[in-house]
Amino acid sequence: MSAPIRILLADDHALVRRGVRLILDGEPDLTVVAEASDGAEALEQARLHQPDLAILDIAMPRLTGLQATRELIRQQPGLRVLILTMYDNEQFFFEGLRAGANGYVLKSVADRDLVEACRAAMRDEPFLYPGAVTALIRNYLDRVRNGEPVPERAITGREEEILKLVAEGHSSKEIAELLFISIKTVERHRSNLLQKLGLRDRLDLTRYAIRAGLIEP
């Protein structure tokens, strides 16, 4: 018998992690080897434990699941990633695929779909919760027929990192220290964000970050 699939589980709610872990550890071919309560900790745990698969929530402190996905795959190209989320959201789905995730699973049906999604990811097969497939294909075909592009990112990855930290209440000095950049660079990015998004101040940035799923309200 082959070794179980080694899983990193990241969600900022301990009760959610506990429930998901019960589902996964109940399967003989799956084992949770590490947990994280935010995206940055997920990167640290992945470096320590070298899992086969990471299961990430979207809305987490410090780094979102989408941000962490991009960085995890950059650092560990062979790692498979699943997005586990409460958001039935087309934009997040496309962002997840663009970031390199193998699948998108809703928390509301995790007990039904998650185990299958883990096994599909390790076969390098994409997984979508069944209810989303028809709607997403229809939406994509409608966009193509109307000559519209598939949703693009409004802001860069670095701007997204800074937007999230601003919305979480960090000062420019704290952000500079967290991202190892200068305060002047932070201020420039924040100014660019306000201009790009047509916003006025930190409060507007925070509202935008909530709507974009970067932080929870």
Topology, please?
Blueprint: E1 5-10, H1 14-25, E2 30-36, H2 39-49, E3 53-56, H3 65-75, E4 80-85, H4 90-99, E5 103-106, H5 110-122, E6 127-128, H6 130-145, H7 157-167, H8 172-179, H9 183-197, H10 202-211
Describe this structure in words.
- It is a single chain.
- With 217 residues, the chain is of the alpha/beta class.
- It has 2 domains: 5-143, 3-Layer(aba) Sandwich (Rossmann fold), CATH 3.40.50.2300; 157-211, Winged helix-like DNA-binding domain superfamily/Winged helix DNA-binding domain (Arc Repressor Mutant, subunit A), CATH 1.10.10.
- 54% of the residues lie in helices and 13% in strands.
- The chain is built from 10 helices and 6 strands; from the N terminus they run βαβαβαβαβαβααααα.
- The protein has helices spanning 14-25, 39-49, 65-75, 90-99, 110-122, 130-145, 157-167, 172-179, 183-197, 202-211; strands at 5-10, 30-36, 53-56, 80-85, 103-106, 127-128.
- Strand 1, helix 1 and strand 2 (30-36) form a beta-alpha-beta unit.
- Helix 3 runs parallel beside helix 4, helix 7 crosses helix 10 and helix 8 (172-179) crosses helix 9 (183-197).
- The N and C termini lie far apart (46 Å).
- The model has no long low-confidence stretch (mean pLDDT 84).
- InterPro entries: CheY-like_superfamily, NreC/VraR/RcsB-like_REC, Sig_transdc_resp-reg_C-effctor, Sig_transdc_resp-reg_receiver, Tscrpt_reg_LuxR_C, WalR-like.
